[in-house]
């Protein structure tokens, strides 16, 4: 996507999440017609919820359930954003993130880690792997939408 820039590595504080939630209640979600999102989630129900939200927002989304499938799909799909579960059945999500950045050959792809662990060592691993954001499950749709809007507008 023209103008898409790499996101700064960051974590959302509780205050920032609260502000994003408050902003989202004040206005309907902005359409995201120009964002290609790769969702890598091995839990079918979680993947489907994320896919449905992305479709509602107008995103072009692809869902993969393994790291190998994600790497193969990304090579042809060229996503702007990858939302990655860290605990995949075949390979570590951090390794998939590293490979996606390397494979894309560009810094514009934003990596969003999705996990149930907010431990410091997990956050360090995602930061070291080049992830731009670390979200804890369950993901709130309004927070994910705000993240994608910021990615689309290259506001970070």
Question: Could you please describe the fold and organization of this structure?
Answer:
The chain has 156 residues and is an alpha/beta fold. It has a single domain, classed as Rossmann fold (3-Layer(aba) Sandwich), CATH 3.40.50. It contains six helices and five strands. The chain has a five-stranded parallel β-sheet, sandwiched between helices. Helix 3 packs parallel to helix 4 (93-104). The protein is globular. The two termini are 16 Å apart. 36% of the residues are buried.
Strand-helix topology:
Layout lengths: L13 H13 L9 E5 L3 H13 L3 E5 L2 H11 L3 E5 L7 H12 L5 E6 L4 H9 L4 E4 L4 H12 L4
Parallel strand pairs: 1-2, 1-3, 3-4, 4-5
Helix pairs in contact: 3-4
Q: How many β-strand stretches? A: 5
Distance between the termini: 16 Å
Q: Might you state the CATH topology name?
A: Rossmann fold
CATH class categorisation: Alpha Beta
Based on helices, strands and strand pairing, what is the structural class?
Answer: alpha/beta
Could you give a short account of the major beta sheet? Answer: 5 strands, parallel
Low confidence ranges: 1-12
Number of domains: 1
| Estimated share of beta-strand residues | 15-25%
CATH architecture: 3-Layer(aba) Sandwich
- Mean pLDDT across all amino acids: 81
Rg (C-alpha, Å): 14 Å
CATH superfamily: Response regulator
Instruction: List the total number of helices.
Output: 6
